Amino acid sequence: MADFTHLNLIDDVEDVAPKHGMDPGMQARYARRPLELANSGISLFRMAPSFRLPFGHRHGEQEEIYVVLEGGARFKVEDEIVDMRAFDALRIPPGTTRGMEAGPDGALILAVGAPNNDNKDAQMVQDFWPATAGE
C-alpha cells in the first residue's frame, strides 16, 4: 500500500488566525502537521482586501516560496516592496525579513518552505511594516 496523505487545505486544515487576533482580515491554515510532512511545510493564507499583517518574520534556516493563487498582494522584503499578481512566485532565502499585504481585491496565497524544522528557526518582527497615512 502506498504511503501518502490526502486532505483539503480549506476543509481539513484549521484556520488558526482567530486564535492570533487576525480574524476577520485573514485566514491562516498551516498544513505541515496535518499532511505529516517530514522535510517541508505548506500554508494557505486568505487575506481580506488591503489587509496587512501586523508583523513580519524571518527564518534562520528555512527558504520559503510564496505563490499568489487569487487576487494580488504586496510583499515587503527587507526594505523593498514587491507587487505580485495571480500566479507570481516569490522566493525568500533564510535570514530575510518579510511581510505581506493583500491587494484591493484580497489575496489567496500558498506558502511552501523547507527544511521542516518545526518553525524553531522563526523569528517574529513586530512593527516591521506599520500602516502609515496615505500608503
Query: Can you tell me the overall shape?
Result: globular
The CATH superfamily appears as: Jelly Rolls
Number of helices: 0
Kindly name the structural category: mainly beta
What does this structure look like?
The chain has 135 residues and is mostly beta strands. The protein has a single domain, classed as Jelly Rolls. Helices cover 0% and strands 47% of the residues. It is built from no helices and 8 strands. Strands 1, 2, 4, 5, 6 and 7 form a 6-stranded antiparallel sheet that branches. A two-stranded antiparallel ribbon has the order 3-8. The termini are far apart. The model has no long low-confidence stretch (mean pLDDT 93).
Secondary-structure map:
Elements: E1 26-30, E2 41-47, E3 55-59, E4 63-77, E5 80-85, E6 89-92, E7 98-114, E8 122-126
Antiparallel strand pairs: 1-2, 2-7, 3-8, 4-5, 4-6, 4-7
